[in-house]
Fold this protein.
Amino acid sequence: MAVHPELSDPLLIPFLTVEDEERARELLGELLAREASPLLWKVIRGQFRGAERPPEELEDLHAAALLRLARQLGELRRGEAEPVASFGGYVAATGFNACRAHLRRLAPERARLHDRLRYLLTHDPALALWQDAALTWLCGSARLRPRSERPAGPARAPADLTALTAALQKAPDGRTPTLVELVRGALSRLDAPCRLSDLVGLLAPLLGVEDGEIGLEEGDEAGARLADPERDAGDRLADREYLARLWQEIVALPLGQRRALLLNLRDAHGDDLLAMFPEARIATGEEIAAVLEIPAAELASLWPRLPLDDLTIAGRLDLTRRQVINLRKSARARLERRMRSW
């Protein structure tokens, strides 16, 4: 498979093009030590600013992110991954995703609440989510969102938001309000935006979320965008309606797009996501095989190897790797359009 260094960040070209494998290992080490390691530390320390986390915990997180980068760069050199146009952005995204995954291990219920709030704030026209000049995520009524890129106003004091949220624990008719009602009601009564992290912290006890607070700051790349079916569907197993709708849209894709997408369905860390449909009781293995138009026994034999890389999929479908990538890209674009209202 051809490697396309001309499409990659110039920093990577020596590593991608050198023929001697020993020299390639040396260049990889230099990339990781000189370029990736300092940036990863900046991302990790920035994300956990103010959190009392043991130093060894952050060191393990840093080391794991470096190992992931080394593996990904090896795949890039072998032509098994898409070109990386910005190495710095690639490293930063890896660091953000590592922090986000760490948060999910430490506080999965709180992370799920965070994702639900982000989805609501970005899909309800009465609400808004934006970043200020310090890249802190703020939220509030849509009328409070700045009309330009100038810094937003100061966040409302947490004590004020606590009082407002407490006042909305019961709806006028005595029933328990939904999350949508809580958020709309609380934010509509604020005259200034509040920090998203404060909103998560204040709503957590009201909704019975018992995970401990660890103080992770909200990062751009780490933020979940629930309309993206590959990036966040794995974190929304509890949202069965969303997954059911997503599955219906996948079934409606052309056969080639279904195969290119499902056989390679993975999360941001490269782990298989196809299993989420049987786990959520959305589709059985037999039903997935039918959508792929392959025998159930064949899918069962493939299952331990999922997700398949593009070269393997291309060989199975008698296509080129580029054709597989294009089919999956078309599938993602259609799903994003169709799922935008969710």
